Amino acid sequence: MIFMKNKAVCLISGGIDSSVTAYLAKKENYLVYALTINYGQQHKKEIISAKKIAKLLRAEDHIILNIDFKKFGGSSLTDKLIEIESNRNLDDIGKNIPSTYVPARNTVFLSLALAYSEAIDADAIFIGVTSTDYSGYPDCRKKYIQAFQQMAKLATKKGIEGKTINIKTPLIDKSKAEIIKIGLDLKVPFKNTWSCYKGEKKACGRCDSCLLRLRGFMESKNKDPIKYDFLPNWYKI
Amino acid sequence: MIFMKNKAVCLISGGIDSSVTAYLAKKENYLVYALTINYGQQHKKEIISAKKIAKLLRAEDHIILNIDFKKFGGSSLTDKLIEIESNRNLDDIGKNIPSTYVPARNTVFLSLALAYSEAIDADAIFIGVTSTDYSGYPDCRKKYIQAFQQMAKLATKKGIEGKTINIKTPLIDKSKAEIIKIGLDLKVPFKNTWSCYKGEKKACGRCDSCLLRLRGFMESKNKDPIKYDFLPNWYKI
């Protein structure tokens, strides 16, 4: 009897959470089909990292899809005129919705993953959302993911046939430190990941994403292998 | 007191249903923000029609967003190697899912409309889905739209603030003949719409979309103003 592996679409952004999530899909014995959305971020560092991760992970395929979110505006990640928060107090991150929120981004990403899943007959979609360090984004919450799952059942040909494409969020309850520990166990090449909202040569060490990443590494008692332009005074390892 | 009109994002594909839907939004006194998704269809006739409709409707803005669905494959509308059904018996249309089904298309379209709505602070999204002539697509059913609405409430910044972006489907229960009658009342310029799945100079008159359109005009006792390469023998007006 030939054992057929199931397929999973893994949304890979190039950051820590999505990279660890994709490695978890691989560990769960899925054939990984990587999907990266180039949504008009101000820089391309994330895309370069996503490519490296998909390659090192030996994904079956890697689709990079361009969508010009800049046409909509409304986020500092796609609009140069809106300033990205920096040097914030860690306790303030997650209290409200920051400028880096991209309208309905996860909904668009999951919808595209759903389209890809239907086309290749995949059973699962892996997305690296976390509700702990979610930085105030509405579309990182558990009840949002559940609602998407409900909708996906009705949206698809598979759903009509009584099958489901499972939306898997293995990190949703994990802190950044826990995610980093899981990633180190799975040998995720963190040196090839990119989290910084800015696209300079080195990570800025000041934006919310750098701060959460640095705190995660500090709390997990591991050194972040990437280079920073600046390190906050609380970061000690 | 200044009366502020509410904004609505209207998905306009260039066909009859979405054009009538956008005119209904205008009639309901919304400021219309048109959104057309160029998803890699084999032809561009739909996009040209969408532009004309948005212009004639005097939309506040019209965003045309490119997404290359061809990368996913799986539909005869984006993949030349898959044949489009033609000359089918009208009773057979809608019984099963045809080759023209584009995986998760309405979910992707609605998600992008949701992103646009959030960015411009719109209160409603208008989409011209119909469950009557839905040609066997899962994502044209009422319960699917309701599930999307539920998900959208949780997905957005507006939702967190207790407000809702309403997904409006004024045609969902209407037959093509009824839609055409509504459109004629609203003076929708049907001669500028395009429904044919093929992109030749004239509409083919053989694909499911042409057949449903022709039956609609016949049943509404009006002549279709566009030109056809072929007319089925049952079409009499």
Task: Walk me through this protein's architecture.
Two copies of one chain form a homodimer. With 237 residues, the first copy, chain A, is an alpha/beta fold. Chain A has one domain: Rossmann fold (3-Layer(aba) Sandwich). Helices cover 34% and strands 11% of the residues of chain A. The first copy, chain A, contains seven helices and five strands, in the order βαβαβαβααβαα. The first copy, chain A, has helices at 16-27, 45-56, 105-120, 142-155, 157-160, 176-185, 208-219, and strands at residues 7-11, 31-38, 61-66, 124-126, 166-168. A five-stranded parallel sheet of chain A has the order 3-2-1-4-5, sandwiched between helices. In chain A, helix 1 (16-27) crosses helix 6 (176-185) and helix 6 packs across helix 7. The mean pLDDT of chain A is 90. Chains A and B meet through strand 3, helix 3, helix 4 and helix 5 of A and strand 3, helix 3, helix 4 and helix 5 of B.
